[in-house]
């Protein structure tokens, strides 16, 4: 994004100023426009429907005043709520758009800061306009609408391997670290409040439990803020997963502590029994959340198994099941965040094996879109609520809170790392520790939790809120802005963008098996042993249930390879074709260089004439030109009839075409496959007949029955030919049964006259056989019927010699 | 008894120096060795073959062969042995030692080189110093051997694609008539340099003193 903006800046500086000015003007107008209805909406006397009467009332003293028919009327009340929501979302999106047009600003200041500032501005404008600021930081809105998309996005795309490898460390930080923070901050705050110098201040009134509650609210690292800031600094995967994982998993701790202290703050004391119950409650909350998420995840995976005929609603299942997992666990006061994470992580491998490529893209983009909008809204609302909320500033309390947060974080991280490094293979260095400590940002969750506090039990609520907001501002602004230059200064390892190569994949699997084997030889049931057992269980039972059809048995390596092939094919199709696959390292190495030169077979039974040079060239030219015509055109867009996925077909077709090319090369080398009917081999008609076009012959079913061993199932291709200009290459391979073939040759010659360049269809060498006839019949009927996705799988057969 | 103990002590100290394990770890390994060998001095391939847990491992035969491969003994010999003694057993195990930390870059390179050499030897069954296409195909085949649904074509394709990748990364400009003989050790190191072998290829239990090693279902 930055490179694009910078190139734009280089393009024409003079052009940018009016552009920017125009955008600013639009934004201002929009702000004005939004402020008024947003403000007006909350004031009690909203504009009613007006009926401008054109001609006034009827003259005279009629009792019934007949109003004139309203041509144009305003009824804001009717659409108030959706209108406001839409306006906020629009504002958020425009802001996001605006920031990226000003590249210098977005390089220095992270987006979250800018958004908070915008929120402040909007809140200020609303206040200036004299209207009441809408209570946007409603806890319901936040927890039920704004938070789930972000967490689902994070959970669905969570990199499982590094997460699992570092799970111990992450749990340590999340649980022990948060507990330490909460008690340290709460306890010390209480102490500070108590030792206030003489003048009796409000602070004396704060009991220990409210302090601890405040500590537990403020101690949790916030996933939204961490995501927002860490996304921009591109730090290496280990640190990212540590801080991010911690922010996700500490939700359970926060929930338990919050409820615990809130319950008992009213009572005033906490017994040991209740502490013990609190501990049990923590286990229940955490494990319960994970369990609920896993159940819904499995349900989603199972549902996706049957969606092969209704591809359109596949993404919906993913979203709805996840949201229900969240709501269900919130219902029981379990950890909703952990439910979402586990739901996304559990369902992902199975769902991705089942759904179409398009659905996969849809899910990705929708999740990114929603989470992006949510995040933007959250920060804006934070700004607005800051302007609005009743504040009660107390210098001591606030400054002590901020300092204590920092100190507690540093001590906690250092201590825990020291302990964990004894068990880790890849130790965490001081630089890592610094980044982890510095990356402990607080965010909107803390604010929402504070907002939820009951005023009766917590008379200090406003002071708490002020302190929370200050800490949030401090972490987001100061830490958020400085972390990027610090990362550069300390030369912390950045994220590597390397694509996973097939060699790495092979060797990762190889290593897994090797280490499992060595563990077995040593007789120690360790790490790898259990992981291997889990994998085998997964493969044997779970995959069979949750993945549809053939893909259930596909080993991971093959799945990876297919995915890679698909990606390359898509790249190629998108880049407009071309014989060479775009690769990271431009190289001239091709398959020829690797295949050992096979000696040509010596004498064979039949005469082995070579294809004359001219014909060879023609074949090659036609192949090349057809490869370039691979643009697909989407078919009808009626969502009810989205049966065949033309793009996907086109891509799978493309892969097959690639295989055909290779096959063609093999055929060229091993000429023995090209047998010739007894007719004169070099006669032009014969040669031309061999290069028949696929089109016309296809529509003659009776002809199919005659030739039972020549291009027997172009019908299968016929489907594809319909859906787009798929060039297919056909090299007709005659059988040794000459009379038949000669017969058909005539047909081909006739047909050939019609269609010259509609493409050629290629067939691999087929062994002539009796069963071909029967198979052709079957293929015919199958392919002429509904060309659903099953037509895809059938096609696999002819291509494996 | 005392004399043999003393002899063992001396042997152990030698092994500590050679392999880098601690005395405790060597003792544990010796205990396991006796279990596997049925209290004999040497173990043969048959002893390792009958370990029940290895049954499901797709690359079982490669792993067992690696123990009997002379190249893994770091003495510049090639070929394979029929039986191995405890010293050879420990030497092979030393490839899976957790890396000492902190490591300097040079040490990291050395450790990585050692472990990659072990992997290379496992693939290079022909002992000619390169992994040919056939050998690589065999590797992929073995990896996929335990999965029920195996298409031969795909296995070949994967191996070919992998080989192509190695060739493209290491020798980018080859003419159409040149032939890429096989993956040499340098190329092997090059393509796997991002995998961080030195921190991934290790067995955890060798790190901690275990007196509670499971014997599994192994019976002599």
Protein described:
- The complex is a heterodimer of chains A (801) and B (220).
- Chain A has 801 residues and is mainly alpha-helical.
- Among the domains of chain A are: 139-490, Na+/H+ antiporter like fold, CATH 1.20.1530; 527-567, no CATH class.
- Chain A has 32 helices and no strands.
- Chain A is globular, with a radius of gyration of 34 Å.
- Chain B has 220 residues and is mostly helical.
- Chain B has 2 domains: 1-98 and 202-220, EF-hand (Recoverin, domain 1); 100-201, Recoverin, domain 1.
- Chain B has 10 helices and 2 strands.
- Chain B has a two-stranded antiparallel sheet with strand order 1-2.
- Chain B is globular and about 65 Å long.
- Chains A and B meet through α20, α21, α22 and α23 of A and α2, α4, α7, α8 and α10 of B.
Major β-sheet profile of chain B? 2 strands, antiparallel
Put simply, the count of helices of chain A is 32
Q: For the largest sheet of chain B, list the strands in their spatial order.
A: 1-2
What is the assembly state of the chains in this entry? heterodimer
Shape of chain B: globular
Radius of gyration over C-alpha positions of chain A, nearest whole angstrom: 34 Å
The CATH topology of the domain at 139-490 in chain A turns out to be Na+/H+ antiporter like fold
Strand content of chain A: under 5%
How many β strands of chain A by DSSP?
0
What is the top-level CATH class of the domain at 139-490 in chain A?
A: Mainly Alpha
Instruction: Outline the low-pLDDT stretches of chain B.
Output: 208-220
Structural class of chain A: mainly alpha
Tell me the name of the CATH class of the largest domain in chain B: Mainly Alpha
Number of beta-strand segments of chain B: 2
Count of helix runs of chain B: 10
Mean pLDDT of chain A: 71
